[in-house]
Amino acid sequence: xxxxxxxxxxxxxxxxxxxxxxxxxxxxxxxxxxxxxxxxxxxxxxxxxxxxxxxxxxxxxxxxxxxxxxxxxxxxxxxxxxxxxxxxxxxxxxxxxxxxxxxxxxxxxxxxxxxxxxxxxxxxxxxxxxxxxxxxxxxxxxxxxxxxxxxxxxxxxxxxxxxxxxxxxxxxxxxxxxxxxxxxxxxxxxxxxxxxxxxxxxxxxxxxxxxxxxxxxxxxxxxxx
Length: 225
Ligand code: CA
Hints:
alpha/beta, 5-stranded parallel β-sheet, 4-stranded antiparallel β-sheet, 12 strands, binds calcium ion
């Protein structure tokens, strides 16, 4: 299946040129001529990448980008901004808002295709596996790997599940019974007491960082928010 690119550009001549260029390079294309249409088409066509003109009628590029990033189905779709020359503040704002890259008009067809391919490759290299980050702690649930800074932690299944649960929602207090319910494996029993034991062991393995795993007296545990 060819990669699908949504071209959100109000100037018909530019949109047409991009479409011809991308089609010639083996991409499937969908088009939108204003901001709201860009959102509608993004939801309907599920593109692999969106080329987003910054100056769009109705809802502008920034507005479109914000809504894309707030939509859990579309947040991961890479967005390349098409901006006018000299609009550096737009570029910075767009990148801060989660745009993957930008191309300044007028651009060469080759550059545009190269930027698109680079983004699509990145998507393939980085599997969309869930990553939980909390301060200097990184958890990869799919691989059951946990690193603190550059150091790999050696955790039991129960410890890993507990840490992942707490780190996914810093500041939220979980009761022991909630922790038991959420971390219970098929092959290992978890009791309220076991939760306390796991917390002690986790704190030890986390060293100074373990202070962030807080006991909320009479309630349960949380990662400091
Ligand atoms: Ca425009």
